[in-house]
User: Fold this.
Amino acid sequence: MTKLSVNVDHVATLRQARGTDYPDPLEAALAAEEAGANGITVHLRSDRRHIQEQDVLAIRRSIQGKLNLEMAATDEMTEIALEICPDQITLVPERPEEITTEGGLDLLKVGDRTVQVAERLVESSIDVSVFIDPEEAQVGWLTAAGIAAIRGFEINTDRYARAPSEAETESELAAIRHAAERGAASGLHVYAGHALTTHNVGNIAVIQQIEELNIGHFLISRAVLVGTATAVREMLEAMAPPTDLHI
Assistant:
């Protein structure tokens, strides 16, 4: 079964909105693990709009599963990552004015810089992944380059999740499947995430090459209403492969 990594950024968003010390992202992370999540994801942004360094440190010290730290490929973030040493780093694009990550890295433009940062991180035994759109050019660059420092990639599922028609949904799914198959065939770990909900996650979770899904906004929004544990269990149920009935 595909693993679930819960992004707890927006627990911190709620906290930062009032400048209080609650709700605590660590508490959410522990509750998510208790409910069956295999890992926790956080995005430490340059503007510190939600997750803070102390959150990352507390989560790193306390959870049992994998900590995936999303970050931009900047010198500042690289130094912080080397101090914290999460299990995995996912390098993502970042713009101060964006509400959330708007697309994948354009490796044709920033590939050299991405590799430089990845090579520094791997020296500290940190696995490195990159967040990319399921486009032939991006996956092709990554697989053709054969870069030892980049061991995996996360497929941006935003276009699939927001497709306005069934035909476009199928087209985006086909692109995701192709990216996953090509990446796995090249020996890369394949992950996916962005804008996934219990209503649309099933089509992604059944793609065999995808090892793990990173899901945050929907889960935290749902947790406000039903609690973190219930929200995580609902997502895991939605991710579960269909059961074949034999009569």
